[in-house]
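Troubleshooting entry. The earlier prediction with zinc ion gave an output that would not parse, so I re-checked the input for stray whitespace and re-submitted. Clean input:
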Amino acid sequence: MTDAPHAPTDTPPCAELHLHIEGTLEPELIYELAERNGIPLPYSDIDDLRRRYEFDDLQSFLDLYYANMAVLRTAADFAALARAYFARAARGGVRHAELFFDPQAHLVRGVALADIVGGLADAVRGAEAEFGVSSALIACFLRDRPAAEATQVLRDLLAMDAPIVGIGLDSAEQGHPPEDFAEVYALAAESGLRRVAHAGEEGPAAYVRSALDVLGVERIDHGVRSLEDPALVSRLAGERMPLTVCPLSNVRLKGVATLAAHPLPAMLEAGLAVTINSDDPAYFGGYVDDNYRALAATFGWGPDVLAALAHTSVDASFAGEARKAELHAQIDAWERRA
Ligand code: ADE
Ligand code: ZN
């Protein structure tokens, strides 16, 4: 596999494991797709749209995130969205990416599952050749919609032999515990799919426990509120259960007051298998390299800490062993040069 064309020097090559492809929809692309598809936008101009990127909590972000998706109509739109992400991510050092997508958010708007999956799969295939980025798709289910709908969507994805590596669970967390989705996770397990879930972003540590015990997840997305339960922290550390932490997202959604107040140093100190990710970079002020850079500046972390985080991202990924070995070697080479 070729190296990405623009290898950065200040942040390491890495895997990105917590990235909602719809959260990479930049204002410029929103305007371009709205024009292409003849969709009126409820903003006076692009600056008016940008001024709305101030959030009080997860729900206030989700309202804008779902509204902006209205411009995604065709397979070509989904392919363009993902290609733009791969181009930007490769410039920031991402060498492997596992992309979340939200099928239900598009199905409810009348977009066909084949167009959603087909467009994203085209971009995934192209990313390897064009940018040297290996990647995989993870279908996320919306926890604030009925669990039976999630199960039906997974059945439809399986029936069309969709090229997904696994499933996830996202959207409004509070009041929507993981255990409500036991059925769709059991179906995923039977079907040989990998399982991850958002837990402990805004919801309690108990949701992290039920994601592990009831859903059988292999990674926890966010998991920051696990720190409220010391026994859970010991368990996560003992199992080296990966947590896909998204620092700039946590600040923008007010899960933490400032980056300096982020518990990441305490999480590392506790032996947790932390990875760094961007979540919804178009909305939260930065891609994954911006997250690494901000952490380095805030906590005074040098190349050794950044490389260790990048190695954890590779270990926690669903890439094959040969690809993981290539990525570890690229991180080692970066650290020697840094
Ligand atoms: N969907 C997109 N971004 C999300 C987040 N940070 N938490 C839950 N659901 C999401
Ligand atoms: Zn997320």
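This one parsed fine. The mean pLDDT is 97.
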